[in-house]
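The instructor's notes for this session suggest beginning with a concrete chain rather than abstract definitions. Hand out the sequence below and ask the class to guess, before any prediction is shown, which regions might be ordered.
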Amino acid sequence: MNSPSAILVIGATGTTGRRVAAGLIAEGHRVMAAGRNATPVEGAQAVRFDWNEPATWSEALDGIDRVYLVPPIGSSDPAAVMLPFLRQARAAGVHRAVLLSSSAIPAGGPAVGQVHAALPGLFAQWAVLRPSWFMQNFAASTPHARSIRDEGAIMSASGEGRVGFIDAEDIAAVAVRALTDDQAPNTDLILTGPQTLSYADVAATIAEVTGRPVVHRQLTFEQLRDRWAAEIPLEFATMLAGMDRAIAEGAEDRTSDTVQHLTGRPPGTFRAFVEREVRWSG
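After discussion, reveal the predicted structure:
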């Protein structure tokens, strides 16, 4: 092969994927930016890729030796399409895979947890990123951002539970290291911000920084499930509402030093994120 092997970034225009692609390009790596529409990404070669269209997989894997995996959005059974792709990737010469999962889902757990469990048996070099909830959930056009704008409230079933919210910039920085360092992590990595916050703390910080009144409105599990189900499949909505219930029970009340350890710098704070990214119109 005349050109050096490339790194395939799936979801290259998404929340973490575009940041991973940018970080790899900045370090001089050859990047294939994969997405359903093959949207151009500066500094990368765009390629069409759809989890649900296996005919798109071969071209995406041509000349690839490492891959960043973002599961199909909204799927309650991502393993059904991801595992056949990963077996094809291994046969095509991919030797390192970095999977985006969630702090709420262990190996062998539901959804992407099944892919996590299979990954070490497929690749000698691997990592599973298990970030806590994204700070980006409160910006742009996300459901939380819309409810803040429309109702002055963040809706959750998390009670007083605390979360180590993490900036997608830090997730991407860890992904770049996991993809390119000489030694792959070969483990799963819990990723958090520097502190845990309740949703009431989040609301107060957004209100303080933006000058806009924002409160946390507590919902029941059923109320939140039904709210999500108006936009996404019921099974996925039920899983998300269950994660909020787990937060209320303390499942996400933790921090880790992984970002500092792998990148050499501390993770960003929620206040810094709000100051940088949260904007209001009107």
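Then share the key points. The chain has eleven helices and eleven strands. The mean pLDDT is 95.
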